[in-house]
Amino acid sequence: MDHKELLEQIDVWHDEGDHQEIVDAILALPVKDRDYELIGQLAVAYNNTEKYNEAIQTLLDTAKEGKNHHKWYYRLGYAYSALEKYEEAISNFTEAIKLDPEDSTYYECRGLAYNELEKYEEAIHDFTEAIKLDPEDGFAYYNRGCTYSELGREKEAELDFNKVRELDPEGSEDQEDRDGTGSFISFVLLDENKIDLDLLRKQLQKDWGIIINKKPEDDPESLIETIDDMALIVSLMPAPIPNDEAVDNARTNFYWEDAVEVAKSHKAYMTVAVLGGEKKLLDATDLFVKVCSSCLKQPNAIAISTLGSVLQPKFYIDSAESSLNDNEFPLMNMVFFGMYSNDNGATLSLYTYGLDVYGKLNMEIIDSDKSEDETLSLLQSITEYVITSDVTLQDGETIGFSEEQKLKITALDSTILGKETLKIDF
After folding, report:
1. What contacts 128, CB < 8 A, 6 or more positions away?
2. Where are the domains positioned within the chain?
3. Strand extents, DSSP E, 60-182
4. Which H helix or E strand runs over 72?
5. Taking the CA of residue 193 as centre, how many other CA atoms within 13 Å lie in the half-sphere pointing to its CB?
6. Whole-number Å distance between alpha carbons of 302 and 304
7. DSSP state of 241
8. Measured in whole angstroms, how far is the alpha carbon of residue 106 from the centre of its chain?
9. Are the beta carbons of 1 and 9 closer than 8 angstroms?
10. Contact 259, 310 (CB under 8 A)
11. Residue 89 confidence (pLDDT)
């Protein structure tokens, strides 16, 4: 094939993730036929196949011509960053910015490298510049929020995380009307400060048929992808969750006696976020649960902090696979059912946690004299019905699953959740 046809074929291979095909095709050409453009594509393919030293050498071989091109510096910076040579990466991203100061990706990559060197103020500056260039870039808001958290600037962090929740993958046109509904975020606890994104990609494809190809601009410790108009973000945070939040959440899981000790032992965590928006609630739910369950198969994953609690990997994975493989709603992955007694076990009280993301009030059954199985089964059935049928229960109404069953619904300020809930009389 001629030069133009080869470049077109390289684009196809790149889109399909066949990066080794690109390497083989270009190396099969005589050296005299490998022009600057083809050598640049070879470096990209080397980066995508994790042959970072080869990518660097290939780029340095074209230094004379490459030093006039911002992409040359960017590709070089990417390779150095993947090799954890962050000073060299920053130097090259800086040159790329000088040549093309309008590309937000260059600022984001340099910001991530600054973070690795714990130069947090410089990182914040770069993420802020990226946001100025692309105000709809949820990844930049997310990374700046994480950096603020590292500095203990929680109010600024929360503003950025709220912005991430507001944004849909393409930049919502209705952000003023958005309240975070359809945005899912949880944290996978790790006993080592590392993440294997290649393993995660393979696991997602094996478990769920989800294909996420590696791209040259990908950060080695973060994954960001748009899937069916939903934004997926997975990112490594190299420290325990601040303020003992995971440990406090673990205390609510009365099903797992080791939850607190496991939470105390985590050294780092992965943030998993899916931004789907109100129109894709159930699709976003499925994607989120699938990704979280595959993340929990990382060798160093020990738990997931979600729904105000901390859950065992096996429980989460089994619940996800048993429901989603049967095309059922993953109720136990998306709603936590808390349990307590006000009178030493004479009666039972239950509550839900997690309905807010569906735009619904959480529910409670207080001081029921029915059995645990019967009470929990009823609350689970009502919860699944409310979510999957998009039903909004109202104060003063009744609900039941037979003609005879009429359970009164009462709105109240919950002493357990600290906000308005709906009490179901049972």
Report:
1. 144
2. 179-326, 335-424
3. none
4. helix 70-82
5. 7
6. 7
7. P
8. 22
9. yes
10. yes
11. 94
